[in-house]
Description:
The chain is an alpha+beta fold. The protein has helices at about 5-20, 30-40, 45-55, 60-70, 90-95, 110-120, 165-170, 225-245, 305-315, and strands at about 75-85, 105, 135-150, 155-160, 175, 185-190, 195-200, 215-220, 260, 265, 285, 290-295, 320-330, 335-350, 370-375, 385-390. The protein has three domains: about 5-145 and about 290-350, 2-Layer Sandwich (Antithrombin, Chain I, domain 2), CATH 3.30.497; about 185-285, no CATH class; about 370-400, no CATH class. Strand 1, helix 5 and strand 2 form a beta-alpha-beta unit. Helix 1 (about 5-20) packs antiparallel against helix 8 (about 225-245) and helix 2 (about 30-40) crosses helix 4 (about 60-70). The radius of gyration is 28 Å and the shape is elongated. The N and C termini lie far apart (about 60 Å).
Amino acid sequence: xxPLHGPLARYAERLHRAAGDDHHVTSPLGAWLLLALTGTAxxxxxxxxxxxxxxxxxxxxxxxxxxxxxxxxxxxxxxxAVWERRPFDGLARWRAGLPRRTATGPLPGAAALDAWAREHxxxxxxxxxxxxxxxxxxVLASALATRLSWADPFEVTEAAGLGAGSAWAGRLRRALRTxxxxxxxxxxxxxxxxxxxxxxxxxxxxAEGDGAGMLVVSVAAAPxxxxxxxxxxxxxxxxxxxxxAIPGRRSLFDLPLGDTPLWSxxxxxxxxxAADGREEQATAVLPCWAVQSTHDLSGAGFGxxxxxxxxxxxxxxxxxxxxxxxxxxxxFGRFGFEAAALTGMAMAVALPPExxxxxxxxxxxxxxxxxxxATDDAGGPWxxxxxxxxxxAEPAELPESELADPPTDW
Length: 410
């Protein structure tokens, strides 16, 4: 088993517990990655607190985060960033150990942060999740985005197929039915959620013969089972299904015939090549769904309090104010699945140190010169060549036509 599975499952349980059982989506991995990047900046009690939140040694967590971010999965676009109000000398060693693809540099403005959000979430998230103010010293971010097509699309069926006892069946007209081939449907027994219905749909590979893929696993338990227990069971089943087989799979011949809130089990004569003459067939009916959520991860339990203290010590702000928020979106439909998560952390001081600001407003109120110079980042022959020059001695009134928005061909 991948050593990340246990720590990530425990982190996911804390995150989902805080989100409650309302309709929501989150990326425990997105938050965990951002926390893992901060671990090596910590020492003493903060380092121990981060290790506890991460569920593993901070060096191991940092190495895992580095491996994931430096070699992104073909179906999971990933990015990370660290921006500073000014280059802090205390962060130099920590900064040097960040993944190679991590963006660094001066703290961008709000519009640039929103553009970064759109670029690195395939346009699914258009706003950066934390606010940057004049007091903000440091911003960290992680982004994950997925947009995939099913290897075998769903068929369309009546929503009544969701079951006579389903409230959704009365609210919806149509639902999704699994195709004849390609999806895996099972009834499985789990420690946390009891007997559950399981559906697994594989993504279409990016390229023929490419071993990288994605499996989207849905798990339903009896209505009285707590959401946290179903989510924990789903984590375990999804990892197992993606790396081997669904554990605890029940034979349909070991279950009683009839209807339950989770399935309808019937029997009929058939011709089959099964060795014992007993053939098992399973299909599934699911609704389409879409969700957008925002989670505040600033509270205790997620580890970012220790991360803020550790980074604050390195930038001479030992007790910084901080905010950590994650925006996540997802949509599950007939032809595919898309999701994105952006986790942002901003650290600020209550007031910047005392200083002096000298402000200039330049005024071109008398004759002045203008020179237009060609540039070429590749260093070609035009680079630095003045092309036009002027001496402005007669100003002109702003034309009425330029009071409105510019024409599209301007």
